[in-house]
């Protein structure tokens, strides 16, 4: 057995692993590799762990990241002939899956023909000896170039945070965790730039490491900047500086530290000083919460406009990921975000030449899929607006024998395969972008199967979804709330192997009103482009509106909820724009909160008429009433100003749609809350709203403590394990353009069910984590890694699309 000294002596004869990061282009493809921080060399034999990264946090604090544990994902394969006799005699478990042992693998039988075997994941690899890393006497640092470290010295203190980075499902309900350990070593003396140091430990599972301290060029996780970059004319260009050391708390940085912008070749082009953005004890919202638990400093270089590729560096500390200042940075980002919708399409095969991500066609009648009509309505379930009962308790029991042959299409939602009427919101947002910026989006190519037709691709994407609900329209005009399987996906089954009953909800007035807003909008957009298609959607909208109007007032639970009233209000306004019939203005006015000049555009659990307000302010004045228009304009800009103030309070400048909402699920930080700000900018061309929207977009694009873009395939680092079952089972990289839910507030979600399962792997305790770091890229962490079309993908695409197209603002007015 070699001792620690022998490792160093043999450094030239053993494997030297230079740990580097791979930059990803904005569309998820490999591009030039940036310099990794710092120059790290790890010496290891066999199963020894080698650090992924070592970087300076301060001149006297270094961080070491070590990944422990390896997940080998389960795969599908044909059941062998030898296994079939055993399979015929085994018992069902949980009424969902059949357990099978094939060779030395254990897994489940999947698919309607029961000829496929899906093996459970496997977990392997050495673990860190955490006891060793708790004691500073076990960790030493030495340098033959720095006199202060000529003799090996023990570190002063060690702090740690540990996060799960992947999950291995090793049986039906058993999990093991691959982890990322970050150790923060406070040193007896500050490091000297340009000198090389070696760190050794008494942990036999961790190899010694050598690094060169080069704060003028190597990357530090303490520096956070947007991976997408900035347009030259952006009124706000900022980066952030902060570190939370787990059980060591926040790091204090001196005020007014020097920072600079340099080219990737090292030429300095801009100098500045850090400024305090928010302290660790300062509240960031009306709830009095601080979401960082450490001081956050901001670096403003808004005045720098020269196009190029750069990095931002802080004196004595290090540099950021490379970023670009360029005219098309948001254009490239929007392309990826919008194609996240294409990757979630149901009823179509996904793959070349339109995408490298591949998935067979699923839920299409030509492949034998049957969609049964149900008598349960979406509005009455937890998938609608009531919040109860759970759809599983009513939908399967309401199945009828009648099938719907044209019930294919739409978008898969979240980690499973339901398609819900709420997705119409996304179609409306795409059409709105085309309305605001017709020249830009008329020529924008999304590389879709429909790209060769005469309709802009952004409208083709909107129509893919709207046409699904139009084909679901019942003979009486009512719109079904969507399609859902009778149970959650079975372990190991993909979307095209679904064996559960698939059911279409019965029509209801709320779903019909929601559909009307999209159908009337597209009919209006098409009126001078494709009159035949416009007429089809106009007729469909009129029929759906007639059904909803004849049924909405029938006493039922849905009438008790404000979402029904808001949907009726917006549908009436959409019909007014389409038909110019004044009766719809009267209905809109009768159901509008804006009859009260002091009303807000949105109030928690009371009303949300933001979309209606923006549409009304864009209508021809001859269709509106002056006093009502004035009330709406004042309310709309009060809300936009509230959002600006919300961003002013937060350290990283993100905003909250609702000051009192908790961070998590659909209200998390992965998705920019910018739509009202961007609409205010459109209406007023006031740069203050554009500035606030750009700042509010930075956290989700990488300017956050994890240096992570929360949309797959974008930037240098993005989620690798979103909750996409098809991706997981097929072993592919995630499809680009999926914006996950992101961080969960540990205070609000203290009892999250999957956090409870992961608790043994999380350190410090879950309750002690700052919200801005409380995201784990784990497939099965539903509250973090799942997503929905309307809560994450749609708003991200809208924001990035607006920021890409805004130079053509005057043309679209």
UniProtKB/TrEMBL annotation:
Which Pfam families does the record match to this protein? Answer: CelD_N, Glyco_hydro_9
Q: Name one GO biological process term.
A: polysaccharide catabolic process
| Sequence ranges assigned to domain Glycoside hydrolase family in this UniProt record | 333-753
Q: Cellulase Ig-like domain location, by residue?
A: 219-315
List UniProt keywords, sorted A-Z.
Carbohydrate metabolism, Hydrolase, Polysaccharide degradation
Tell whether Membrane is among the UniProt keywords: no
Gene Ontology MF terms in the entry = cellulase activity
Q: Which InterPro entries match?
A: 6-hairpin_glycosidase_sf, 6hp_glycosidase-like_sf, Cellulase_Ig-like, Glyco_hydro_9, Ig-like_fold, Ig_E-set
Q: Which domain of life is it from?
A: Bacteria
Name the family: Belongs to the glycosyl hydrolase 9 (cellulase E) family.
Q: What is the protein name for this chain?
A: Glycoside hydrolase family 9 protein
The organism's taxonomy opens as: Bacteria, Bacillati, Cyanobacteriota, Cyanophyceae, Leptolyngbyales
